[in-house]
Amino acid sequence: MGIFTVRGKTNILLLLLLIVVIETIGIVSGFLGNSASTQFEGLIKPGFSPPSWVFPVVWTILYFLMALALYRVLLGGGMGKDRKQAVLIFGIQLFLNFIWTPIFFGFNLYGAAFLVLLLLLVFILWTTIAFSKIDKLAALLMIPYIIWVSFAGLLNYYIWILNR
Predict the structure, then answer these.
(1) DSSP conformation class of 3
(2) pLDDT tens digits, residue range 105-123?
(3) Domains of the chain
């Protein structure tokens, strides 16, 4: 049970709820951004751009890891000041994550999307630091997200520059 047990407690219903909510946020964001469209295929992309099928696979995994990290923070005890702040920061980064897709894909505002992505990265790092004060494993679960969003930022920047 290790990863699903925090301080001797397990709440699979809470975990499932968080997974469903966070994955749904990702799906709705994609829908609003119409990211399934072929428009992305028509953009000039840098040589390091992965194939389109990689993105939904990676995001599904990252949303699961985010849900698991939040679960560990929520299950770790009462709602003290640190925990409340960590949950608030997590919510802000999730909102920024949510709006990036419509800005990039829906409105084709690649420069604005890049700025949102930079702000998102700041909030992901802040979330990770806040989580580390409560549960070290929760913070570690955020590392793939940091890496991917950093990569996505680089990709977003090059797409913005190449498609002016």
Answers:
(1) G
(2) 989 999 999 999 999 999 9
(3) 2-162 (1.20.1260.100)
